Fold each of these.
Amino acid sequence: MNLSNFVKRLQDIMREDAGINGDAQRIEQMVWLLFLKVYDKQEEKWELERVDYASIIPGELRWRNWAKDNRDGKALTGDNLLNFINNTLFPTLKNLLIDETTPLSQAIVKNAFEDSFNYMKSGIHLRQIINIIDEIDFDDYEERHAFGEIYETILKSLQSAGNAGEFYTPRAVTDFIVKMVKPKLGEKVADFACGTGGFLTSALKELDTQVQTVEDREMYYNSIYGIEKKPLPFLLCVTNMFLHDIDNPQILHINSLEKNVRDYKEKDKFHIVLMNPPYGGSERESIKQFFPTELRSSETADLFISVIMYRMKQNGRGAVILPDGFLFGTDNAKFAIKEKLFSEFNVHTVIRLPNSVFAPYTSITTNILFFDKTNPTQETWFYRLDMPDGYKNFSKTKPMKIEHFNPVMDWWENRQEIENEGFYKAKKYNIEEIKNKNYNIDFCGYPHEEEEILPPHDLILNYQEKRASLNADIDRILAQITSMLQSEN
């Protein structure tokens, strides 16, 4: 099968269907069908391994029994296919009976379909889509390997699918972070807003190189943990894990923020946490009750930082991608969160990323914070990664590549301060300097001859962050003055 234009073939057929509106729905339609195909192939493997294996999917609803077209004129198509999908397949899978004894590998089917929908109106077009997907032969090593490229194509398509693009993190970024954190077999890697599983698959790729024995492989199978509240990225993530031979992927379809952080026990903590939490949005007001008063923020990224702090094991380590607003923000919640982070964790490195890494989702400049739960922070290195030569911006056709991180990887093991045309590209700041700045850690930023013009949404968010920080600084100064005056009386 020619896999190079696989996604394009599917999208071209769907564009002719009256029921699908836009790339986001096309991707959703594609993904639940791919999930069923991949799951059926996994079940074939489980049936060979376990003589008593019983599928949670009723026999007539398994991919092999309704999707395959044997070219004998008996395959479901047209109105009959639509009726089967809409009135039998979906209602049944959405209402599968599961409980705490149901294996994750089976419970995932119901979780995957709870929020999925069939958008297509033409049973003829739907049959064409199913036949193309069924052509993939997962028994063929080359095709299974090549499916990774198809998957990457789907993920990159998310960038142009409206707000669906928010859960796509460029693979170069996740691979770089994993290389710096260096996960080892036996450690468990978590992402509490895992999206399509980018960090988890990068970690699996790194851990797979360490497997040498049967025991190692068992540790590999149990090395990842993810949470994703949105249905489409959850479904993509689960499918991704199956393709990486994780039979019981510990991926939960819930909201990480809907639990009191003070209730986490040792069993809920992880050796490594890697995240690109959603930012620029807000959760409902009631979510804040799950956090200590001083850590309650309206910004989702701030709340996820608190979750990370409560869910990291002693001597654990992590990395998180955050917008500039977290660095320069000094409003009460951000101040308290950073004070806790720097006093209870060792924030050893901050990498300033060039603009457009996450375009078109956001043009706000982002940063990677690396930290571990060993000792309180004594000093923090800041490093500005500049745009590579020949690039003005990253784009869909010119994405960031892992080799663009070579300068910071070369610097990482032999750190030195770097000054360029009067601006620091790399510099170390001690904790007293950081405290004296009220945890405004906007160091080694990008010098601009003129202010960058951001899209309206990003511009408003940027100014809101700066206004909140300035107001907080004014309030602190006034409180200090008031305290001094009261002590004189």
Amino acid sequence: MENTQPIILYEDNQIVVAVKPQNVPTQSDSSGDADFLSIIKEYIKVKYNKQGNAFIGMVHRLDRPTGGVMVFARNSKAAERLCKQIAQGEFDKKYLAVTVSTPRDRRAKLVNWLVKDEKENKVRVVLAKTEGAKNAELDYRVLEANEKIALLDVNLYTGRSHQIRAQLSHMGNPVFGDAKYGGDVLAKGHNLALWAYQLTFMHPTTKQTMVFKVFPPLEKTPWKYFQVEKYINTVKPE
């Protein structure tokens, strides 16, 4: 694989925490493009001179256009314990999103029901009784805004496909750069402005609370229009 040296935030014999680049699929898909799971496997295989395939367990995902922090398990027991935390709601994920226009409420909790159209690879907000609908919950807080766009801190309670993008779009404030959900009016040619900036979980063996934070690409539109550093106390990745 070319140009696939990942940014590693932490690793031991149980887990690997890394920064997924935007527009890289989390796992292999029909595009045939290099995926992040394979990149992490290759990194571990080369670094530790492992023969054959290195075991890397994927316990959560990010949409292809979304970048940010992810954790992978290095053995099946660690994967099982991390998945259990996710199922019990003990796996905390926070995102930064830039929306088109400012939400009416500066802070709110959104509860919707979502159905995914596999053919179009798109999620719709539907009535609760709709067949196949899944509950989706998040809360957001407007950190900063100008006349055209707003910076939101989003706390995710459920991990549905395209959840943040679909729920914010349904609210009338699609994510900047999101052509699929109506957020490209001001943003043609720019990346999706959605970034997984913080991940909190319990280490699968030491039981220590692990917190990882990482900045979005601050030099790029639309992040450069906000004081992101003011809201995230962390170190920028090299």
Amino acid sequence: MPSFESALPRFLREALSQVSPQIRDSMEELRLREGYPLSVVRAGEEWTAPAWRTRPITEEELRRTLETAGRGSVHTILDQVRNGYVTAFGGVRMGICGEGAVKEGQLLSFRRVTSLAIRIPHAMPGVAEPLLPKLQDRGRLENTLILSPPGMGKTTLLRDLIRCISLGQGGIKPLRVGVADERGELGSGALRYDLGPRTDVLENCPKAVGLTMLLRGMSPQVLAADEITAPEDIRAVEEAAGCGVTLLATAHGGSFGELTLRPLYRDLLAQGIFRRFVFISLDRGNRVYRVTDGEGMP
């Protein structure tokens, strides 16, 4: 996986050089807020290095960070903000807050940016391998939904699942995987080489369209997509489920109860499309992966 620092401006790279490699390796997010010092999220907690505490972030530095992510053009990257985030080089996701420019109820761009949350992608080769035997039934990989609150590593786990399945690790034969990578976080650019030799990636295309295109054009044995969030995503999942492919997807939620509070997921669960569920949680700073078949869920 390419270094996420290539998506950062010089002032941030210099700030990160002031902390130890151990701290850099454990960082999950960078938090930039105008008028406040840089902070990072580690094991779910925000922390500011002593060297950063007397240096507040400026509006110009926030803008420079976006320009670097957009490879010199802040306008290019701000075209993506309708979902509240943009994806920079190497699958680095940046959440944006500030003064929105709205027309007819739609967010078009930002007049002024006041906060950025930079999600740091991590490669964790092998994290999925112990889970794969639990995701099978009589040798067949089951449709699987990965669940957790935001920022817990759903995308990281999904990426490694794709890699293991493509390579035939974890007690499974190698399979062709089609990836609908709408935001460029799973297999954008050089990230594609981390997903295995039997993986085909469709980037920067809406998930619903991408899943259908992959299904019709690439004859996948497994289809994967990050963050099923819209009704059209559900319809594409329903179509794929009836075509003999295995589905891998993620969703925000810490429990079945949380999912059933939202009609979109309640209907999805009621159809029984997903037969395995992986819940990710934190225990004293360590991620815990729990696999269930959904029996007894509310």
Amino acid sequence: MKFRPLHDRVVVRRLDSEEKTKGGIIIPDTAKEKPQEGEIIAVGSGARDEAGKLVPLDVKKGDKILFGKWSGTEVKIDGQDLLIMKESDVMGVIG
């Protein structure tokens, strides 16, 4: 990928949601909610504090994360549907 996010932004690939319910019912694409889990595929260099010092991000490439339902901006880069969001939109790291 030839894209590098700036400052405290991260690029996230959504992880696919389940195709079936626990009871075995297949969910059509039109009824599925967008997943709120993703994998970070690129991170910015960090934000600057009031003194101008660079503060690195707490997340790194490869982390599996949870984020808010309406977080980020959807973009298409190299044919992939991705999200760009600020690190503050990330709720936590899974595992």
